[in-house]
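ZP: hey, is the 2-methyl-5-phenyl-pyrazol-3-amine complex queued? I don't see it on the tracker
AM: it wasn't, my bad. submitting now with these inputs:
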Amino acid sequence: MVIALRKVLISDEVDPKCVQILQNNGIEVLKNTKLSKEELLAEIPKYDGLIVRSATKVTADVINAATNLKIIGRAGTGVDNIDCQAATRRGVIVMNTPGGNTLSAAEHTCALIIAMTRELSLAAQSMKEGKWDRKKFMGSELNGKTLGIIGLGRIGKEVAQRMQSFGMRTIGYDPIIGGDVSSEWNVEWLPMEQIWPQVDYITVHTPLIPQTKNLINDTVFSACKKGVRVVNCARGGIIDEEALLRALESGQCAGAGLDVFVEEPPKDSPIVKHPKVIATPHLGASTTEAQTRVAEEIAQQFVDLTKGTSLFGAINAPALANALSPETKPVVSLGEGLGSLASAIGGGSAKSVQLTTYGSSLSNAGKYLNAALLAGFLRNQGSGDKAQLNLVNSPVLAKEAGLEVVVKHEDAVPGSYSSLVAVTIQTSGGPITIKGTVSGSSATLVEIQGATFSIPPVLRGPALVFKGSNSSLLSVANGLEKVGSRLTSLSLSQEVDSTLWGVVHLDKPINSSFQTVENSLLAAHQIVF
Ligand code: 9EZ
């Protein structure tokens, strides 16, 4: 699985290192940060890849105007300015650089905690106004205070370690990172409701998702000690701005350090103007070091993708990532192969698909097998835009086509295989079940409708699958000769109710639909694996 990137457009101010790395790897690059929306729409069809920072809004109309676009990369953390749903639907990979800003964001968070505690901004301003106001700016120490860290990813961890050196006790919560991990960096993991009454400071380090929108709200402020201080260096809206204003007015909140806002730039915001608030204009990642790092990282990630070595940073291509890994690559091929075969045998009438994985080695494979199965399935169907179908968009396109997939897993494997994948589709003619397995690095077919293959054929194209009897083989050979194709291998299943299935590999694909020449041949389908 290699993705060719011939031309890449960089439409935002990204460190020149990015251009350099791409060009050194034979990729043609145009950097133009002055494109209007109309110009971008006109230019984008020429490019295979797009790199942005924050200024370019990669909306659905930009994505849909692109005809060759394979990947959109953001030199930074998060993909807020990219319409990921539109990209996924089009099969376009979306990628960011999740680690490049970490230290800058963590340092800025610490800077806001300290600045807020000593009222640095107001004190410095009063000096500039010629004052020497020593009574007004009595601060407090961080030593011995408790910091609650909500979100214990890379940034949360770095903030914890830095603030511990100031003598702060660090407690925190994360739905994914557990207490066993966080205790290794001296952060006591607690459920959020146990955090609020203990903390002197709260800092948030989560993405903005439905579960984190207004996470710090009136209820949280009232569960905290009076005088709690809060920091948001993550995403605007994690702290409810109206609740924060109320808490600042009442004194429940003694101070806030804010780098991000619900609306950026904030318009005439009473929060920004509040004397207890120190605000900065989204500067968390704005350091020369972070900007150089994210520029290098996004370029290297693009290069790795063209070499098929890694999909690091991709946020919408879990199946594709598995198609790159040597261990899971044959499993993805198996999913695609069984999907193609199921679609060929069952015709276009299937509306429901059941995918069952057997064997502990496949216990987590359902997630990406699902996309692989659907890609194979849709590729063999008559309608739709095949050029755009891939492992990124197959689940979305299947859903739009009304195709539902139910995924199941069992650790015990029937028969003598170490792992097995079974696919059942419901068709107007009844259910069809096929089974396959991975043999070495190949995807192979084990069974069709209860008829097993003693020598499992490899699922690769071009191939013809047919249903008939022993004598059907002659019809197939004759039929192939008529359309100028030859079989290069043959596998027959056991007979069930005097019917058997056969798979033949062809020397070249057949253009016209294959004609059955004798009655003994019940069905024949060409498969595009
Ligand atoms: C953290 C989170 C949600 C959260 C959600 C995700 C990485 N991350 N963190 C704290 N995806 C609620 C509270």
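AM: back. The mean pLDDT is 93.
ZP: great, adding it to the tracker
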